[in-house]
Amino acid sequence: MSDANVHAGLLAAVLADPGRAAALDADGWAAVLAMARAEQLAGTLGCRLAGLPVPEPVARWLADAREAAEQARRTALWEAEMVRRALAPLGCRTVLLKGTAYVAAGLAAGRGRQIGDCDILVPREALAGVEAALIAAGWEWAKPDAYDDAYYRRWMHELPPLIHEGRDRMVDVHHTILPLTARITPDAEALIAGAVALENGLYVLSPADRIVHAAAHLFADGDLAGGLRNLWDIHCLLGEGAEAMEARAAHHGLAREVVRAVRLAYRLFGSEVPEESRALRPGDALYLRRLLARDGWGRATRRGTRFGFYVRSHALRMPPGMLARHLWVKWRRGAG
Amino acid sequence: MRHRIGLRVGPVSFRIGSDRQAPIEQLRALYAGYPAPDRDIADHNVRLEAPRPWRRWLRPQVRVAGDFELPGAMPLPARHALLAAEMAMNLQMALGHRRHLLLHAATVERGGRALVMTGESGAGKSTLAALLAARGWRLMGDEFALIAPDTGLAHAFPRPVSLKNESVAAVRAAWPEARFGPELAGTPKGTIRHLVAPADAVLRMDEPARPALILFPRFGAAPEIRSVSPAEAFVRLTEASTNYVAMGERGFQALTRLVREVPAVALDYPDGAAGLAAVERCWAEL
């Protein structure tokens, strides 16, 4: 194992088994804290190590991280409430996704989690009404650009991001969980129909669909940036209702992604999964290599691997001809 | 990273790494006498690294990097690495520090009581702080005032004072014994030179002080002193705080307490000497 891999693996090991923290020296701590910051896992680490004997400066750092996560939780829940109020008159189901869903439903994955945008899923036929209602309530386009706008509307699984004029918070309105151009087409209607109601009238995905979505997000979309955090989400979700997971994954066409998530979560975090789902398969090593590509200063390492996954993310997202056209437009405008 | 230094400044510690040796040597000189982080574990990481591999040698550059970074921040020429380090430390504080309410302010202390001077870049707070330090006030910091939410006390963050352009000469004239870091010419803010923090500022960095006066100085205007209401001070200080929103209710409580307990004064002054005299007058009238 390279030096970098040791550091990155250290964070995963401590998250999986907080008892491992007792053996860390100053350099080990420095690496774990830097990694946790870089991978948006600071609050998660803070919650995992709460109450354990750690050196005084580490205890302060962890307390700060918990405090920041608590503030993020409060802000995310408030934003969800703002969205609920704006959409309530429409009468359609509003399903919270990702971080906001985890904290709203009080799930382990939400403990200490960093939360950025408010991600919601609504029925595709309700999209126009949702958009109008949000704009009437003070959200506005974050990317007022004709090509981007048209691209989102035609090909993406979400509206172009909307940002609230007063609170400066972003909402991502999804109508399914993968881009329309991707080869896999999950059953969005089933996701919404199977969603679980919260007390306030908002919904979260069913336990099995949460895992399927998290795995789709990690392996079927994007370049694995922030992947370690997403895999930690999956590790937590696996402990809270994985019974119907395989059937659901097959139904959505995401069986491969889900079993890969299960294997890697077991490998890095020791998740409770059936014995036959544990052994790594060819190709998994490459994903591990990408997930742990940081050094003891939190710097991105393994440029080749990262670039490979970046290319892969585009290949997953659209057919070659379309990709060429897209990159050509982006390159001509220098937008990247 | 190949070269590194650990520093503690008041209640905050940094691990600063660099791919070149020179910036670390410069930091060692500027921060001689500062303690290492407790148990060698720092709150924040700062990285002075080339934005592209070849920028270590070819027209070398350095990027403002660390645990927190601003996307799209322009790299600086490597000869301005000290400025990059200062900016990166500020950024880690502004985005990462939650233990204290941070006010973009210079703070000095006398008789156990703190004078907090806040204002935008160019208002003259660093220069005033240096001039006051030359007259025996203890320098608590020229960048951030750290207000503890539980006690309301100001904690010191006494880094080398970042002086710009004409203020370097003004401080040198007022304080011939003062020591300075290397001159950084042609930065985005003009010529910068760091005033090495006085020995007592470093020795007493763990000594907090009760805020006694909040000052809103404005350099280059006709002399005027005006009392500022708690409500106006509150609004102006929310704008001067980098973490007021992030601190949530604790930030609100710390700030309302500060403006309720501490009088605030807006001070316009045409030059350093007039500014000093006005500050002393306000202080005497407390």
Describe this structure in words.
The complex is a heterodimer of chains A (336) and B (286). By secondary structure, chain A is α/β, with parallel strands linked by helices. Chain A has helices at residues 3-16, 26-38, 42-48, 56-87, 98-104, 127-136, 146-155, 188-193, 207-219, 227-238, 245-252, 255-269, 284-291, 303-317, 320-333; strands at 95-96, 118-121, 139-141, 162-164, 170-174, 196-197, 203-204. In chain A, strands 3-4-5-2-1-7-6 form a seven-stranded mixed β-sheet. Chain A starts with a helix and ends with a helix. In chain A, 44% of the residues are buried. Chain B has 286 residues and is α+β, with helices and mostly antiparallel strands. Chain B has two domains: 3-96, no CATH class; 101-284, Rossmann fold. Helix content of chain B is 31%, strand content 31%. In chain B, the strands form three sheets. In chain B, strands 6, 7, 8, 9, 10, 14, 15 and 16 form an eight-stranded mixed β-sheet that branches. In chain B, strands 1-2-3-4-5 form a five-stranded mixed β-sheet, with helices on one face. In chain B, helix 3 runs parallel beside helix 4 (166-174) and helix 6 crosses helix 7. The longest helix of chain B is centred in the first third of the chain and has 16 residues, at 81-96. Chain B starts with a strand and ends with a helix. The model of chain B has no long low-confidence stretch (mean pLDDT 94).
